Amino acid sequence: MNTTPISPPDLPTSDEVRPQIDATARIPASGDRALVLGGGGSTGNAWLVGVIAGLFEAGLDVTTADLTIGTSAGATAAAQLAGATPPELLAATLAATPPQRTGPVGGVPTRPVSDHLDKFRRIIAASDDVADMRRRMGAAALDTDAASDGSGQARWRATVASRLPSEDWPRRTVLITAVDAHTGEPVVFDRHSGVDLVDAVAASTSGGGSAYRIHGTGYVDGGYRANAENADLAAGYERVLVLSPFGGRSLYPAEWGTHLATQVDALRAGGSRVEMISPDSGSEHMFGAGAMDLSLRPAAARAGYDQGRALAEGLTEFWR
């Protein structure tokens, strides 16, 4: 009888078994055009759709960028553009029936938003730097989840799915940002991450104080990664167009070095040409305390559309 021991087959390592979720190492180091879609709540998403539709109808299609970066509301917009044209998205936004007003700012009560902002400010004040802030935000979200019945996850996924024309990742490079709630580490999702598009967007938009779980790991809003835009991910690209519903405003201390202006300076120092579009002074009121007011979405979309049409000619040489 053969007594020679038989070697077991090589087993896959844990890294081979586990999906390679974080796409940071996969981001192309250079390219031609990058589109950055920043966060800004419900009205921010509508404004982004409006701007892109206005540009499109004026003859400038920015949806064919070599790299698209979406954060929070911008993640929703990036995913929406994967399944519909800008005019179709604009029409859907304008046709949606606004909710009945139930308080001073409409369909979304003011107090929960204010409470979240107050909590956010307290965490920022207690944090040593942006990495410490991310860890604290993640821990707070996980604590909130521990006290809940877990039903919110399914409801949020269904809500996000209802907003997307398609649940398939686009073939072009789209990055969606989030933060690991357990470690505070930034995470970037792409179509190779082993994560459904709906789940990636749901994670990037989970800024209401709870975490969104994917493969057992909780994630919080991509805006906590650095800022609402995360334009630094476009480093190495020749032309970078940033659409910022919050206009680069940030609650983070300037010394943390995370402000959009700091990122834009770094991009330009690296050789990128950068243009930024923000809401004009006549519509800024829709992107502060009213950012989660669903009844303001049509007005925000129209404001963005008007801006897009007005700016298209001046941006054509830059983008093309």
Verbal overview:
- The protein has ten helices and eight strands.
- Helix 2 packs across helix 10 and helix 4 packs antiparallel against helix 10.
- It is globular and about 50 Å long.
- The N terminus is likely disordered.
Radius of gyration: 20 Å
The number of helical segments is: 10
Work out the oligomeric state of the chains in this entry: single chain
Instruction: Report the major sheet.
Output: 8 strands, mixed
What is the terminal separation in angstroms? 75 Å
The SS-based structural class is: alpha/beta
What string, H for helix and E for strand, traces the elements in order?
HEHEHHHHHEEHEEEHEH
Strand content: 5-15%
The residue fraction in helices comes out at 25-40%
Q: State the total count of DSSP E strands.
A: 8
Anisotropy-based shape = globular
What is the average of the pLDDT values? 89
Low-confidence stretches: 1-18, 100-111
Short précis:
The protein is of the alpha/beta class and 320 residues long.
Index terms:
disordered N terminus, 10 helices, 320 residues, 13% strand, 40% helix, single chain, alpha/beta
Question: Topology of this structure?
Answer:
Elements: H1 14-17, E1 31-37, H2 41-57, E2 67-70, H3 73-80, H4 86-95, H5 110-126, H6 130-146, H7 151-163, E3 173-180, E4 186-189, H8 197-204, E5 212-214, E6 217-221, E7 237-243, H9 260-269, E8 273-277, H10 297-319
Parallel strand pairs: 1-2, 1-7, 2-3, 7-8
Antiparallel strand pairs: 3-4, 3-6, 5-6
Helix pairs in contact: 2-3, 2-4, 2-10, 3-8, 4-10, 5-6, 7-8
